[in-house]
UniProtKB/TrEMBL annotation:
<dbReference type="Pfam" id="PF01502">
    <property type="entry name" value="PRA-CH"/>
</dbReference>
<dbReference type="InterPro" id="IPR002496">
    <property type="entry name" value="PRib_AMP_CycHydrolase_dom"/>
</dbReference>
<dbReference type="InterPro" id="IPR038019">
    <property type="entry name" value="PRib_AMP_CycHydrolase_sf"/>
</dbReference>
<comment type="pathway">
    <text>Amino-acid biosynthesis; L-histidine biosynthesis; L-histidine from 5-phospho-alpha-D-ribose 1-diphosphate: step 3/9.</text>
</comment>
<comment type="function">
    <text>Catalyzes the hydrolysis of the adenine ring of phosphoribosyl-AMP.</text>
</comment>
<keyword id="KW-0862">Zinc</keyword>
<keyword id="KW-0028">Amino-acid biosynthesis</keyword>
<comment type="similarity">
    <text>Belongs to the PRA-CH family.</text>
</comment>
<feature type="binding site">
    <location>
        <position position="74"/>
    </location>
    <ligand>
        <name>Mg(2+)</name>
    </ligand>
</feature>
<feature type="binding site">
    <location>
        <position position="75"/>
    </location>
    <ligand>
        <name>Zn(2+)</name>
    </ligand>
</feature>
<dbReference type="GO" id="GO:0004635">
    <property type="term" value="F:phosphoribosyl-AMP cyclohydrolase activity"/>
</dbReference>
<feature type="binding site">
    <location>
        <position position="76"/>
    </location>
    <ligand>
        <name>Mg(2+)</name>
    </ligand>
</feature>
<comment type="subunit">
    <text>Homodimer.</text>
</comment>
<protein>
    <recommendedName>
        <fullName>Phosphoribosyl-AMP cyclohydrolase</fullName>
        <ecNumber>3.5.4.19</ecNumber>
    </recommendedName>
</protein>
<feature type="binding site">
    <location>
        <position position="92"/>
    </location>
    <ligand>
        <name>Zn(2+)</name>
    </ligand>
</feature>
<dbReference type="InterPro" id="IPR026660">
    <property type="entry name" value="PRA-CH"/>
</dbReference>
<feature type="binding site">
    <location>
        <position position="78"/>
    </location>
    <ligand>
        <name>Mg(2+)</name>
    </ligand>
</feature>
Amino acid sequence: MIKIDFDKMGGLIPAIIQDYENGEVLMVAFMDQKTLDLTLKDGKTWFFSRTRNKYWMKGEESGNTQEVMEVLTDCDADTVVIKVKQNGPAACHTGNRSCFYVRWENDQWVEHSKPLFDPNEVYKK
């Protein structure tokens, strides 16, 4: 039986969130045992925020939730890939579809998408 190894990185594992239909990597976040259990039970993605030191469900503020379609772990059982149906236009808090919208080109980082919503409006910052 496989058991996820939360001990290697101080109780947290990386969670790679991928669009179920097209394979696009939407985001990377961190999970502990509690948030992985919540995700598997609830069918929505839950994470641990290292900067805010709290648990959060993706979309709890923006409404852009993620419906879990499939969960995989790697051969070392210390990382998960969660394939989701992205509900709402964007996974990134910047308003972009994916957190990976910046590409290295010609010796510089270049943004390759436009926000699909205004984060200042959604998050009331």
